[in-house]
Design a protein that fits this description.
6-stranded antiparallel beta sheet; Phosphatase 2c, domain 1; 23 strands; Beta-Lactamase; disordered N terminus; 15 helices; 3 domains; alpha+beta
Length: 578
């Protein structure tokens, strides 16, 4: 390899003069490919490592233009000389480095190299460049594989996260419409550009209940509960296939030839119109539920041809469809149970009397969650002597068990109070004694009151006892409101002190006054103390004191702050003015 490195006979390590041929041995034994080019870019010399990497003999390359012989574009074509960084460094006589260039081997294969070039001088004159280069083809491939693997993991993690979020969010509600609205907000735009949900009804009809697009738009499409045509048996329509128990369907632009035929049923036509209107380039339609219980179909659409759905998307959306189907099925079961429970509640809460000029109104508001019924109740009835009895009570819990216990106390209390002319505390004492033997109620609170006085002319007196219940609120003319806190005793079910009876209290009721009996759901909100709740009720009641009694009850419920987790019973009585 004579003259492989011109001027290489200079100083060696530690300033000692190198022995003859020393640098030649270093270059030949160097495992990194080395090439020397002159100022014009012609190859002067190559070491054995360069011959092996390029698959060419040094003698066949010597004197050739390095750029024309070796340098290639990514596609294997000739690279313009002005884009060659090595030629630029030769023109400038400056060091340079690069990564990702392609060199052409003798066998026609391209290798990706990383290179470093240093100017070569002799006596102050520029003689060319020494170029060291290594094959990084394997490294780049490995990096691409790692990048692809990382991207796949990130994509999988995003899909799993989306499914987990959908499962969590849908599990927070048993209302079908709310569940589907949340579903669409999660799917668009994270997984699709458009989403449509079609549900089967009990009569076999199909209703399009949701259409969601970019930024929540529906583009004038069918949204809300719109009845669709019958399903028919059109096998070519993905929506009809799925609703009839078929497998999930993935459609891409290449499937247009199959779907170009006229729709075989009105429902198929609706689905085709939807896809055409939103400019779908890729769509997935999956069943909601399992094969034996298909409650509807979910259709997702993408509009970018560069990002179509794939089979992995189909698996993810199919899993989402199964989960959503279970939520819808549970919601429907819950709806049927709620209808039965609400009918039961209406039957348990008897109609209110309207004795003389006294006016009564009541409301029951079920808990936001649970079986929609509970242990809160109100009652008003005339006793044997013509006196009006008022009751507000709360059995522990707000479910069907509490409602059943409430029904037991309701009937027993009426029976015990019917012919009793003494103070209310004595009636509640008897109820407390009987409760363990003839009811399943472990604990309850209540207020039992008697409104004494002529029902038309008065004067009226309220006599009451409280078994651990929130105090009645009395609104009197002139803008006054106060809680009647006397007459407080232990809750029903608590051990009583032997020989002591429940306390009783009495309060004259001025003409035109309003009495409010309520359960703790009206004043207790999680994160807020009881005094705050009582003060809030007092302020709202004062502002509504002159409103009709029904308006007063409705507005007190409407003005409750969000966050309540309990049911509410409310009983209001208004006395006539003179």
């Amino acid at each position: 390899m004579e003259d492989a490195v011109p001027g290489a006979g200079g100083e060696g390590w530690s300033g000692r003069t190198a022995e003859p041929g020393f640098w030649r041995q270093v270059v030949e034994q160097l495992s990194t490919a080395l090439m020397v080019v002159d100022p014009a870019g012609r190859i002067l010399a190559l070491n054995p490592a360069a011959e092996r990497l390029l698959g060419r003999a040094a003698a066949a390359m010597r004197g050739k233009d390095a750029h024309e012989l070796l340098h290639r574009a990514t596609d294997g074509g000739t690279l313009p000389r002005e884009r060659c960084l090595l030629l630029r460094s030769l023109a400038e006589g400056a060091a340079a480095r690069g990564e990702g260039d392609r060199y052409l081997r003798g066998d026609g294969r391209l290798v990706t190299i990383s290179w470093s070039a240093s100017p070569l001088t002799d006596g102050g004159f520029f003689k060319g460049m020494v170029v060291l280069f290594t094959d990084i083809t394997g490294d780049r491939s490995a990096r691409r594989e790692r990048a692809a693997y990382t991207s796949a993991l990130e994509d999988l993690n995003e899909r799993l996260t989306l499914v987990a979020e959908i499962t969590d969010v849908l599990g927070q509600t048993l209302e079908t419409d709310e569940a589907l609205a949340r579903l669409c907000r999660l799917l668009v735009p994270r997984l699709a550009d458009w989403a449509a949900v079609d549900l089967r009804t009990g009569s076999g009809q199909v209703h399009r209940v949701a259409v969601t697009g970019p930024a929540g738009r529906d583009a004038g499409l069918e949204s809300g509960r719109k009845r669709l045509p019958e399903t028919g048996e059109a096998a070519s329509s993905p929506l009809v296939q799925v609703l009839n128990g078929g497998d999930p369907v993935l459609q891409n632009e290449r499937d247009e030839a199959e779907t170009a035929a006229p729709p075989a049923s009105p429902l198929a036509a609706v689905h085709s119109d939807f896809l055409r209107t939103v400019h779908a380039t890729s769509a997935i339609t999956v069943p909601l539920g399992a094969k034996r219980q298909i409650t509807g179909a979910l259709t997702l659409v993408r509009t970018d041809p560069a990002h179509p759905f794939d089979t992995e998307d189909l698996e993810v959306v199919s899993d989402i469809g199964r989960r959503v189907g279970l939520v819808i099925d549970n919601a429907r079961r819950f709806g049927r149970q709620r209808a039965v429970a609400e009918a039961m509640q209406r039957n348990l809460l008897a109609p209110l009397p309207q004795p003389g000029r006294l006016r009564l109104a009541a409301r029951y508001q079920p808990a936001p969650a649970g079986s929609q019924v509970g242990g809160d109740w109100y009652d008003a009835f005339e006793l044997k002597d013509g006196t009006l009895a008022l009751v507000i009570g709360d059995v522990v819990g707000h479910d069907l068990t509490a409602a059943a216990g409430m029904a037991q106390l309701h009937g027993i209390l009426r029976a015990l109070a019917w012919d009793h002319t003494g103070p209310p505390g004595a009636v509640v004492d008897r109820l407390d004694d009987a409760m363990p033997a003839i009811t399943t109620v472990p604990m309850a609170t209540l207020v039992l009151a008697r409104v004494e006085g002529h029902p038309h002319t008065g004067p009226w007196t309220l006599r009451w006892t409280s078994a651990g219940h929130p105090p009645p609120l009395l609104l009197t003319p002139g803008g006054h409101a106060r809680y009647l806190e006397a007459g407080q005793g232990l809750v029903l079910g608590a051990p009583m002190v032997t020989g002591t009876g429940r306390p009783n209290a009495a309060q004259p009721l001025p003409p035109g006054s309003t009495l409010l009996l309520y359960t703790d759901g009206l004043i207790e909100i999680p994160g807020s103390d009881l005094d705050t709740g009582l003060d809030r009720l007092r302020r709202h009641a004062l502002t509504l004191a002159q409103a009709p009694l029904d308006t007063l009850c409705d507005q007190l419920l409407a003005r409750m702050p969000p966050g309540s987790t309990d049911d509410v019973a409310l009983l209001a009585m208004r006395l006539p003015t003179p």
